[in-house]
Design a protein that fits this description.
Blueprint: H1 3-8, H2 12-31, H3 36-52, H4 56-77, H5 84-87
Length: 89
């Protein structure tokens, strides 16, 4: 619905690349290490978001959806229920 964001997601190759980057993000988030190199990679992503004009409300909203959708699936894969406190992240 947002023309600016729609323009950023201009085709399947862009979406596929971004999905791959999200998979890398979750893998590194869950596996660590969370050292200075990790922090620097997060700063670079933040700078890229700023450069393309992606406002925090958009990526924070996406992160909220990830936690609501993915965390219960992660828990199901482990044979556990997803604690509501985890969804508060």
């Amino acid at each position: 619905a947002n023309p600016h964001l729609a323009g950023l997601l201009s085709g399947p190759s862009v979406i596929d690349r971004l999905m791959g980057l999200q998979q890398q993000y979750f893998s590194r988030l869950l596996s660590g290490p969370h050292d200075e190199a990790y922090a620097e990679s997060r700063r670079k992503i933040g700078a890229a978001h700023q450069r393309i004009g992606l406002e925090p409300t958009w990526y924070l909203g996406a992160y909220c959806l990830y936690t609501q959708i993915c965390f219960p699936r992660f828990a199901a894969e482990l044979g556990e229920s997803c604690p509501p406190a985890l969804l508060s992240l």
